[in-house]
Please model this.
Amino acid sequence: MPDFMVFVLILLALAAAGFAVWGIMRHRYVESLRAKGWEFITSPSIQIAFGLNVPPFGVGFDRKVDDQWLGKAKDGTPFSAFKYSSTTWRSYGYAVAMPLPRSLPP
Model:
């Protein structure tokens, strides 16, 4: 039994080290983007995806948004970037919404 306990303690130590590295890397990432003047929202409301009516938005159930960034592009255009997922689609990156200077043709 002592060998099993040592194995469990080693696994717990490795998991704690992994979470610590992940936390430090995430903190550095967030701080690097805040240095650009962008705002980070960890748990935004699903309302940020309202009005986005082209798939994958509005398709499926259990829709969720996560990790929203608010800022301005180099030309001053405001944007909102966020992670989006539903039962039928999951983004592995960020969906970016920003106003266009004029309407696009249908």
User: Anything to note?
Assistant: The longest helix spans residues 2-34. The chain has one helix and four strands. The first strand starts at residue 39 and ends at 41.
